[in-house]
Specification:
By secondary structure, the chain is of the alpha/beta class. It is built from nine helices and 15 strands. The protein has two domains: 97 residues, ACT domain (Alpha-Beta Plaits, 2-Layer Sandwich); 138 residues, Rossmann fold (3-Layer(aba) Sandwich).
Length: 295
Amino acid sequence: MPWQQLRVRVHSAELEQLEQQLLERGALAISYQDGEDQPVFQKAPGSTPLWDSTVLLCLFDAATSLEQTIQWLHNHPATVSNSAVKLEILPDKEWERSWMESFSAIQFGHRLWICPSWQTPPDSNAVNIMLDPGLAFGSGTHATTGLCLRWLDQAELTGKRVIDYGCGSGVLAIAAALLGAKEVHAVDNDAQALEATQDNRQRNGIAAEHIRCYLPDQLPAMQADIVLANILAEPLRELALLFAQLVKSGGAIVLSGVLEDQAESLLQRYCEWFDMETPAVESDWVRLTGSRKAS
């Protein structure tokens, strides 16, 4: 049996209400896609991160009449424009299998792989992170996360204390733990992110005492060998003094979520406390790294 799919480009601020209304109009399933090739980061405590422009993929039974729904969408304030609503007829297939086949394991550096849970890791001797694709907190596929993962792959982490500040899915914290860090502290201002980190920690067979999760104001007083922060340029600027306090003398800072035109001002900001290295660039995104100066 074929299916009908409405592809609707919407303003994300009104997404939740629109999604509920579409379900009431007979949508059997709704999924989200990035409308503008934009990375997803949390911007405020307790928020659910979404793209500014999101494409809703709404699946309907072939027998459902969609004429009125399409006209309603054309007039809905959440819809970007009339041309943003498209109807597609989809042949019958195993949708879950089709979706799963679109994701495959990704290698970062020499030792590190991220693998969806339904696939056998390509290299059983590698450091394999089992992590499924998700909307809000990332699965390692964006350049900002990949830059951090490649840094971790080449770093000497054995016996080190690591802080992952803005942990999201916990992918960087998990990578650090599997690559030999003695203890990892995952910090995020969204409780959902901490829950996702705990779920992914368990999925990867890591003990709770190896990765501990905190809201920012719950992080115990400590100094770490490495602080990782894959967030956004402005929060990184605001957190510079805190990070300087968290990294011990000679320790490393690793910053990502920075665009090329934002890198120079951040370098200047962090140079007060860190000896900063040449930035690494990938797809217009930058990773900044440095070593903590002696206090």
